Model the fold of this input.
Amino acid sequence: MSSTADSFKAAFRHHPSGVAVITLDSTTGPVALTASSVFSVSAEPPMLVFSVAKMASASQPLHESSDIVVHLISVDQIDLAKLCAQRGADRFAGDVWTWSRYETGEPFFDAPAVRLRCRVTERVEAGASTLIVGEVLDIYISDDADAQAPLVYHDREWHRLDDGSVL
Done:
């Protein structure tokens, strides 16, 4: 048995995860990134956690921002997930996605069925990454959220969960 970085990554390729897009405002403008590390940690108060690699372009803005929006992505938004995962892409340019801002300034994409506006409460340095803890301040769930198949990331590929995947 080995515990190298490569074997660790290989092990987690066998573990599927949901896909989210995180948006925030920074001193240089809106920022967006795709994350497969989002999970809930508390219902009272509602809180979530995700990680970002310290070498990611969004790492510095996430260290400076106090407010973020977490979009839980469905299969219908796979293009948004891919765009926000792409290095160097202008995620807010063009007319591919409609985006808006909350009154408090955080940018968000209109398409996702579920989004959570959060205040960052803690940052925990963990190896080559930072864990971001967010307290959920506002939750938006569209009327058709239950009809949308969640997007899942597994073994470096995008997948859908639907009625056919229920055991």
